[in-house]
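Subject: Interface between my chains keeps coming out wrong

I've been trying for a while to get a sensible model of this assembly. When I model each chain on its own everything looks fine, but I need the whole thing in one frame so I can look at the contacts. Pasting all components below, labels as-is. Any help appreciated, I'm running out of ideas.
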Amino acid sequence: MSVLQLTRAVYDAIRAHGEETYPRECCGALLGTPAADGWRIEASVKARNTRTDSARNRYSIAPAELVKIEREARGRGLSIGGFYHSHPDHPAEWSQADLAEAHWIGCSYVIVAVALGKAAAIHSFLLAGNAEEDKRFVAERIEILESQETQFESK
Amino acid sequence: MELPELSQDELLRYSRHLILPEVGEEGQRRLKAARVLCVGAGGLGSPLALYLAAAGVGTLGLVDFDVVDASNLQRQILHSTNDIGRRKLDSAAEKLQALNPDLNLVKHDTKLSSANALDILKDYDIVADGTDNFPTRYLVNDACVLLGKPNVYGSIFRFEGQASVFAARDGPCYRCVYPEPPPPKLVPSCAEGGVLGVLPGLVGVIQATETVKLILGKGTTLAGRLLLVDALNMRFREVRLRKNPDCQICGAHPAFTQLIDYQQFCGIAPSIQEEIRIMNGVPQLTAAEVKRRMDAGEDLFILDVREPFEYQIANIGGTLIPLGQIPHRLHEIDREREIVVYCKFGARSQRAAEFLRQSGYSKVSNLAGGIMAWSNEVDPSLPRY
Ligand SMILES: [Zn+2]
Ligand SMILES: [Zn+2]
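Reply #2:
Try treating it as a single job with all components included. I did that and got this:
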């Protein structure tokens, strides 16, 4: 089983973001470096959920914003290692829509459940496979690192 | 369409293609029949044109008005040291004809503009965009959408490249991804920011590959995907693209149905010029001028035609009526007063101003460069977005 390492600050930021946008879904990107058995995430970037139509159960990051996040990550010596989003009043398990929308094979997809406005369970899934045709989510373990790193906002 | 026959020489020349099931004789004949326009004979245009000529593309158009400079040679492999000072078109033609004498090369010795783009593009099947600036990039995109021709896109900056196929059937266009250009001050060109010399080779060859696949009708193109090339770490990633139903050019209700002034759209030039310019009958005011007149207490009806969320981010006051709602909300716009229309960069407001003029409003002007020009010239504290 792969391990997703999150700094305490990132872990807290994901939960706070989920509570902040409740009852809508929040989403963002996770920046870090590859470790032996998964990603080591050192920063998170809040993204705007462009799915205004059904933001309660869908999320999507605008391509231009993603390009910008990727560029900013590179500027900090990091790369996009994953994405997170919230499930307002839903369990922290991936949906078919989540899998269909996930395209970054090798990246971690973190889901935080937000129950009645409070962040609850948080789970991570590695997008495994070689191509769109055989991609699949594999549950991974989250490990929290106590560290100083903070989130920064994507403008 | 009847595909041209291949000569004995061509059968030999393209034998490595002919034995590929995905190309074969029919594919090679398709290539021979194909007409591709390459915009720019520089960094991206060089590998693009060379490989397309080598692959047996029958007709290749080149648009360029530039002259070879010593600083081009680090990446523009169509040109060599002896070509410094020559027109890029002449230098390119020599290399391409030497590579493939059967090539029908069409030279367009001009700067692509709103005035000539549709006329030039209409004779080609596919457009490959090798331009290095935003106004031309939007121009090429919009012209491709209007003509229904695929736009094989590539761009490079420092160590970073992008490639995609825009405006393919039912696929997204450049504007779906980037509805508006970044403010000009935030955009260093390759001249200012630098570019790794081999990067245009990498990206231009991807464009050539996509062009060939489009001609053959084989494989999966980059339509709907934006390929990100990070040469420094040698990493390729892709971002999925969706067609934007509200896209200003390819959406269900396009904001424009003809080409616009792309220099102005990209916030370049007009706001700096002091004399009053008039575009399609609409006077163009600079931000400084509008500010001066507002401060002087002139009775101006300031009309903001952006979307409500943009107004929330930054505004200079006035009445907010999004562009799409104007036809139904004319009664809210006072015919007697002088109207100054603004948006983010000045393109939507120009459309609105033209519409108001057609609807009988006589005193309508456009804030050239939009609220971004205002932020540049009048009030730097105004948030940029
Ligand atoms: Zn989900
Ligand atoms: Zn579009």
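Reply #3:
Confirming on my end. The pocket of zinc ion (ligand 2) is lined by residues B 172-173, 175-176, 244, 247, 249-250 (CB under 6 Å).
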